[in-house]
Design a protein that fits this description.
- This protein is α+β, with helices and mostly antiparallel strands.
- The protein has 2 domains: 117 residues, 2-Layer Sandwich (D-amino Acid Aminotransferase, Chain A, domain 1); 156 residues, D-amino Acid Aminotransferase, subunit A, domain 2 (D-amino Acid Aminotransferase, Chain A, domain 2), CATH 3.20.10.
- Helix content is 30%, strand content 29%.
- The protein contains 8 helices and 15 strands.
- The strands form 2 sheets. Strands 7, 8, 9, 10, 11, 12, 13, 14 and 15 form a 9-stranded mixed sheet that branches.
- A hairpin with a 3-residue loop joins β13 and β14.
- The longest helix has 14 residues.
- The chain is globular and about 55 Å long.
- The chain binds pyridoxal-5'-phosphate (PLP).
- The site of pyridoxal-5'-phosphate has 14 residues, from α6 and β13.
């Protein structure tokens, strides 16, 4: 049984229900967070809870829980579900509203759910040794990708396209053929020892793993550049990798039919992955 926190109660996830009048269900009017638990420890919980609050503020969703209460509930869920390796999933929608109306009423009571999903990080570690393959896919999402909203149809279509092609992730590109991010990751290239990733703006999510890796890159005296890069630059990079809460730093060895360099995980990428894992 998986225990889920739902609006103040702890229930079996299969018994945890919200109304069909929930604005998350009707309008995707809500946000979420994913926090990894690796070898019994939370990874960057402060960064994730900070981003959760930012997402709520951007959508003007008000909750009556403090950050430390959300942290305590997450810890309790981890304990109740005996989670040593996996993720804590937090979702907050604006709440129930009837009759349906695009305009939200004042004073709605948000629906807050928190539960956990076990994950086999050993499998992810062995994937990282081999590197993963990817598909290019147009970035058809809305233009506020900085909000970690539950409106994920564009991401889901991209991810399923990659899955059909037996690839691990879709790399999204905009109308001018610049890479934005992955379907659920930040995308990086390394060219001439420079680590390059998309600048923070409304087109990408401020990845917590991205944020942490920037400090590692700087400490390692590698050059870090935040700038847009094209599909062409991606394909001719020395190394390519993705970062996310569940993949950490994952080498990318192929984009569609095109091999990156010699088609093996890059040395700098593997080094950054080791450094990241040492820190968490
Ligand atoms: N970009 C998108 C669209 C994502 O969904 C995610 C994670 O799920 C990321 C980037 C990486 O963010 P983080 O490193 O905080 O997991």
């Amino acid at each position: 049984m998986t225990t889920c926190y739902i609006n103040g109660n702890y229930r079996d996830i299969l018994e945890s229900k919200v109304s069909i009048t929930d604005r998350g269900f009707q309008f995707s009017d809500g946000i979420y967070e994913v926090i990894a638990v690796y070898e019994n420890r939370f990874v960057d919980i402060d960064l994730h809870l900070n981003r959760l609050i930012k997402s709520l503020n951007k959508l003007k969703i008000k909750i009556n829980l403090k950050v430390n209460q959300i942290e305590n509930i997450s810890k309790k869920i981890k304990k109740l579900n005996n989670l040593n390796n996996g993720i804590i999933y937090i979702q907050i929608t604006r709440g129930d509203q009837h009759p349906r109306d695009h305009k939200f009423q004042k004073g709605l009571k948000p629906n807050i759910i928190i539960y956990s999903i076990p994950k086999d990080f050993k499998k992810i570690n062995s994937k990282a040794k081999r590197g993963v393959t990817t598909s290019l896919y147009p970035d058809i999402r809305w233009l506020r990708s900085d909000i970690k909203s539950i409106s994920l149809l564009g991401n889901s279509m991209a991810a399923n396209y990659a899955k059909e092609k037996k690839n691990h992730e879709a790399i999204l590109y905009d109308k001018k053929n610049y890479i934005t991010e992955g379907n659920s990751s930040s995308i990086w290239i390394i060219k001439n020892n420079k680590c390059i990733t998309h600048p923070l703006n409304y087109r990408i999510l401020k990845g917590c793993t991205r944020h942490k890796l920037i400090s590692i890159v700087k400490r390692k005296k590698l050059k870090f550049v935040e700038k847009k890069f094209s599909i062409k630059a991606l394909l001719s990079a020395d190394e390519v990798f993705m970062t996310s809460a569940t993949n950490f730093v994952m080498p990318i060895i192929k984009v569609d039919k095109h091999k990156i360099s010699d088609g093996k995980p890059g040395q700098i990428t593997l080094h950054l992955r080791d450094e990241f894992i040492n820190q968490i």
